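Q: How do we represent a protein-ligand complex in a form that can be generated token by token?
A: Start from the inputs.
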Amino acid sequence: MKRKMYVAALCLLILLFSGCSGRKQEVRMDEAAASLTENSPDDKYRTSYEIFVYSFCDSDGDGIGDLKGIEEKLDYIGETMGFNQIWTTPVFPSPTYHKYDASDYLSIDPQFGTMEDFDRLLAACHEKGIRWILDLAVNHTSVEHPWFQQAAAYLRELPPDWEPSVDYCPYFDYYHFSREYQSGYAALEGTNWYYEARFWEGMPDLNLDSQAVRAELTDILRFWLDKGVDGFRLDALTSYYTDDIDASVAFTRWLTETVRSIAPDAYLVGEVWADQSVYSRYYESGIDSLFDFRFAGDSGVITQVAMGSRSAAKLAEDLRSEEELYRSISPQAVNAPFYTNHDMARGAGYYGYDKGGRTKLALGLNLMMTGNAFIYYGEEIGMKGSGKDENKRAPMYWSADGLEEGMCSGPPDMDSFDQKFDSVKAQLEDPDSILNYCRAAIRIRKAFPVIARGATVPQEEWLNETICAFTREGEEMEPVLILINTSEAAQTVDLQESPYKQIAGVLASASDKAVLKGTKLTVPALGIVILRQQ
Ligand code: CA
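Then emit the structure tokens for the protein with calcium ion bound:
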């Protein structure tokens, strides 16, 4: 009897380990995703969703997205898609639809709702395990901000031969006023004065050297952090001190340290739209994250690799070298890879001939990167939008008939155009949709903490023009091997003596399978396969 049990146990062991020898594994994307469970610690290596508030979800039928609308879609964002952080574009009162020019930093724009709506959304986010970071543009205000209005009124009344004094109007020192025209300055109507306004005359640049301005900013940061927001996305860091990187980095450090002094665990990500050699320098400030512009947009690394115009082999080295670069500047650096944002043409338009495979691959590449990965709303369904800015901020395509709850009318002056891929409603039902691919990618990302937190180690033996291969490794985390096929045909690689012998995740067209037979692994067309050791 004992002997029989021994034989049975031995058979079971052989079965369990048979994957190492000759067992054939055939795995589809949905099967692999279904077997994975979330396993990520609650840290700053998140998966984030950028929401352009005006165009995301309208709760009251005026066609304008709002905070209640976002609350209605939190289950879609969190439970369905798997995002665990949202970044909302600015929600403060502002005369523009994009609201990057605040006329008040301490309340909510009435188009978007009330402070009660804000508090309820924040509580709902936290209840569902979603962090919320606010967009903060402090390089400039709106001309309608009372600080600017009072400074302008003072200068209009000041006799032409008098020198202005902050004793009479402290707000004079909040901006850069000059009697002489300088590049980047606008004329102040009704006076002989000019003011710095680098973006346009409606956005006067704040004087960030002013101690009074810094005191105001400290109060603003404290107000929102005390409410419990999880941090900020900082706008336009290169403009803090135009053409002066050292001064801009120093101001970013001041902001970071001020935030830390109020809320030590708050998360900060900065927008430094510049070359990698420039934006990486801002890690000197101690900021958590900087958007990874080198990988983003229509000519970024992600697009080039997804398009096939950049060698897949190079991607492994691109990833390894940038991780090393950021860490060498700040050991705490958390990269913020993204593919598109509200200032960029949307991804689907990068590949006119694409039936979805390359749009998916680009999302997969974005989500397999280290750090806190950001996805712009609508990219998860391959929305279109290019040309003027308004087109890049088109209404979230909830349903084709436009009748789905929450459909927005979009920014004024947006062109009318048709979407290339299906709506959210249709894609949720389609196992082969871009949306379901994106979901699977996020699931893999969260099942293997090392994907966001580890280091990329290129695997030279398999690298070629259309195969990228690297492991992700990190202390006390299960390592994975990631193989990416950027060609439109399935490709087989020989894993030989590799310890990675179990298919753990697949990102591909729904009908394709990753196949491991013996040591031969077939990676589907435009597919990504994630392997674990046994
Ligand atoms: Ca509304």
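The pocket of calcium ion is lined by residues 58-60, 62, 64, 66 (CB under 6 Å). The longest strand covers residues 500-507.
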